[in-house]
Every structure is written in structure tokens, then in C-alpha cells.
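Appendix B, record 7
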Amino acid sequence: MRIAITGISHETNTYCGGITTREDFYTYRGKDMLATAGQESDVGGAIDACIRWSKEIPLEIVPILYAGAQPSGVIQRQTYEDFKAEILSEMAATGPVDCCVLLLHGAGVVEGIADLEGDLAAAVRATLGDVPITASFDLHANLTQAMADQLNGIFVCQQYPHIDLHQRAAEAVAAALNMVQTKRRGICRVTSLPMLMPTTTTFEGIGQTMLQALLAAEENAGCINLSWCHGFPYTDVAHVGASVVASYYPEQAVAAQEAAKQFAANLWRRRQEFIPLSLSGEQAVALAAEQPQGPVVIHETSDNCGGGAPGDGTHLLRAMLEAKLGAAACFSFLVDAEVAGAAHQAGVGATLRVSLGGKTDDLHGDSLNIVAYVKALHDGRLIMQHMFRGAPINLGPMARLVVEDMDIVVASRRNQTFDQEPFLALGIDVMKYHYVALKSSNHFRAGFQHIAKAIITADTPGLNTHRLEVFPRQTTTRRLWPVDEQAQFN
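C-alpha cells (predicted):
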């Protein structure tokens, strides 16, 4: 039996400036995909699952291409077409396969193509014909029925932080193999809600409650899979929004569709519980000061590179400096390649006068004119320890700057703070600080929730603000809650 593994993954924030090009993508081709084995990513999870299954059945892995990029603006049309053409040509060249697993995000937007995943899935289906094709998706997918019509099984990440992408990819592999062996084909049906969800963790609160309800509904339905997509609200496409998708065999249709309908209705009834507390930088710092014990994590959700923001915003850092938190606080990290480069050039022990952050746009705050002492330097090459455990990450040259006795980490490449590694690389033990600030919406929880005495959200002006009403909707014509309280779900 031969199984093809391939995918293109991008979370497109259409409100970002600039176009995402080939240079912004990292790629694994052929045997390079096999080297991700052991990493807790969607690629690693799919490869690991194939290796496990190969010990039970004759199985040949056919790795094609995986292309991924940091969340950013709309993808250049030629870049996408080149990747798609490579996938299709390699599929043709490698010969017939018995099944295929697509590793997708679900919120990809290309110049002239609002639904990247629907377009790609249709092209793969046309190339492979009537073989089982399953797919794993990010929790923040804006799913469409056009995507689902080309697939025999959809497996959406359940957790936010996305600590289970590898598990969902493994389930996609298992389902595809089962369909080959049983000569059956799954069906996928999407129930869309007119609902823009603020970024909501599943580690606590309403997100956790609804995830437990989803898993119970899936078990009761006895279908292939029941998934809940939170959707990606920072994308201006007609199909933006939350959804529920059921994957089932024909004899499971009634139970699966009823389970999806009931869960969606429950989600809609409880929608007001998803509205978060939105604090300014000053308010977040003041609330953190009231906590009797540390570390208290303040996360700047609105300047999250993982949602397309630049990561060089200064709103929260300015509030911390103005509050004179001093040695009780650390911040990791601000993206500013210019300042990180200057620190590396000057060396440890140097004192610099620099303009920090605020270089991308006016929305995320003005640059801070500061005097900084260079405490430590690092090349930025780390191994992730919680989410995507075992996967390499390169933040570029990093510097630990001391400004008014506060430790501030500056990195060169856009990314969010997933775990403690950027702190530890520069000698910062977060357990010794009362205030620990970082830029991330919820992925940081995988590495910090178990040590934080409190977690406080700073929702400063930015491309990932919880204030979804500030984003113009030029493509979406339907009424969407919470922007429009008159939105209806039938």
C-alpha cells in the first residue's frame, strides 16, 4: 500500500500589509519530510503514524512537499501556483498511490483565490481520482464545504495551544488506511456559524467546557470524526467564521449530522461567554501588580506574530517601563533585527542608545528611545519544548538588554513566544521575576500555564486585537456576531 503525504499551510491575515512570497515559506521535500519523525508537528505526526503502521501492514510512504510560513499577508498567486504545480507533478511522477493525507491550515488566502485549501484539495482529487483523501487542519480554519467535498475525512486540531496537531495528523493517516482496507469512503459535512470567535484557549473556561462537550458528542455519534473550528477572524473572506464539521460513513450520516447540528446550536447559545476581558497595557500592568505572588504572565495578545502581527509593538513594554517595574520584570521578546544586530556588533558589556520597536507601522506603537546595557547574546537557534516539541526554531540573533534594570529580550525574526527557551537561552530564569511579559495569544500557555501564578491579557492596539469590530468587512456579506448583534443562526 502506498500513501502520499503533502500540504501547504498558511494562516493568512488579510489586514497585514505586504504579500507573502516564496521566500517567506520553509519547505520539506521528499526525504526531508521523513526527517521530521519524532517532532510534535502535523508533518512529524503523519510520518510517525506511517512508520508505526508500516510495522503492521506493507506500507510505502510517498512524501511529496510540505510548505509552511509564518502567519502574514495574502499569498502571492505565482508562489501558490508553483507549490501546487510541484505537488501535482510529483504525484504524477511517483506513480499511483492508494491514499493521500493533506496537511493544511484552513485559513489560506491567495491573490484571486479566497479558499486556498478548497482549490488545492480539488486539484489533488482531480489528479488522484477515487482514492481516500483525508486532511488535518488547524483549529483556526475557516472551513468551506468546497474543501470538505473533496475529502473523505477531516481532522481538526482540538487544543489551543495546538499541542495535538501531530495527533490529528496521525488520525488522518489511520482513517485513510482504514478506508483503503475496507473499500469505504467517508463523507464530510460542514455546518457554518455566523460567528467570529475571539482567540479562546481550550485550557480553561468556556473553550475547555465546549471542547469536552464536543468530544462527548463525537463519542455518542460514533462517527469518523466530529471537529470544531474556531475560525480565523482576521481574514476578510466570505466564508470567515466558526464551524463544525462531521466526517462519517453513509450509515453514520443521521447520528453524525445531528451531533454536529446540536453542538453548533449549543455553541451559538453560549456565544456571549466567549467575549474576553479587554485590558490596555496600563490596566494589565496594574492588575499584575495586585497579584500577591509571581510569576505573573502578561501576554500581549494583540501583537502576536502567530496571527500576522509584526511583533515589534511597544504598547505593553512602554507601560511596563513607565510603571518602573525594574528588576522585578522581564520581557521576551520584541522583534527588532536592527537593534539585535547592533547589540551583537557592540558585544556583551556595551551600552547602547537605540530606537527599539515600532518600526513596522503606527498601529502597534511608536519606537522607544532607550539606553540599554547588553547583558547577553545568542544566535537564536532553539529546540521547542512544549508545543511542537522537538522541532527546531530560529529566531535569528538575540540580545538580552537591560533597560532601567528590566530585562528585555530582542530577537531578529518574527515569531511568538511559545515556551521558556528564549528566556533561558539568555540566562533568564522566569521563576525569579514577578512580571513575565511576552507576545502570544494562547500558544504560550503550553509552556507557561503550569508555572504562572496568574495570566493577564493585554489587548493593546494591534492586528490581533480582541476588538473584532475594528476590522472592515468588505468581502463578507452576511451578518457576523459579535460585530453585528442582529446575526442569526438557523
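Remarks on this record: The chain has a mean pLDDT of 97. The domain at 2-274 is CATH 3.40.50.2300 (Rossmann fold).
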